[in-house]
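Model it.
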Amino acid sequence: MGLAVQGKEFQAEIRCPGIRSAPAFVGEPEGIYLHVFETLEEPREVMGAFIERYNNGWLLQRHGYMTPARACQQFSPKAA
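Modeled.
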């Protein structure tokens, strides 16, 4: 984590609107990059792809190193 992110002034600024800082490795979770979309459909496609990749591709420690989709499947009450 860079010094700017750890700085007291920066941390105070993000706390003001209620943002909570959590350490992460670079790119995990995926960093947010600015992009100008030409159409409304473009961000929908990008967000849909991200949701698909997150739910079915990321292994999360808090889920016992399962993907969110697998954890949901395993821990959801079974239909009778």
